[in-house]
Amino acid sequence: MNEEFPIAVTDVVKRYVDFTAVDHVSFVVPKGTIFGLLGPNGAGKTTTIRMIMNIIAPDEGSITVYGKPSREAAARSIGYLPEERGLYRKMKVLDHLVFLGEIRGLNVATARTRSESWLKRLDLDSWKAKKVEELSKGMQQKIQFIGCVIHEPEILILDEPFSGLDPVNARTLKDLLLEFREQGKTAILSTHVMEQAEKLCDHIALLNRSKVVLAGPMSEVIRQHSGNKFILRGNGDAARLEGIEGVERITSRDGSIEVDLAPTMPRSTFLRHATAQFQVESAVAHEASLDEIFVKVVGGDAETGGSDVSSGLSDS
Amino acid sequence: MPRLEDPMSAVVFPILKREYLTRVRSKAFWISTAIFPLLMIGFTILPSVFMARTKSSPDPIRVVDQVGDFFPVLQEVFNKRPADERGAEFQAEDLKGRTVEDARRQLNDQTEKGDFQGYILVDGKSIDEGTIVYYARNPSSALAGDGTRSIFREAITQYRLQKMGLKGPQIESATKRLDFDVRKATNDPSKEESGVSAFLMSVIMVMMIYGSLIFYGIYVMRGVLEEKSNRIVEIIVSTVRPFDLMMGKILGIGAVGLTQISIWALFALVLTAPQIGVALSLSKELMPTMNLTMLLFFPVYFILGYFLYATMYAGIGSMFNSEEDAQQMASVVTMLIAIPVMTMFTIIKNPGSNLAVGLSMFPFFTPILMYLRIAIQTPPMWQIALSIAIMLVTIVFMIWLVSKIYRIGIFMYGKKPTIPEILRWLRYT
Question: Is some CB atom of chain B closer than 8 A to the CB atom of A147?
Answer without folding.
Answer: yes
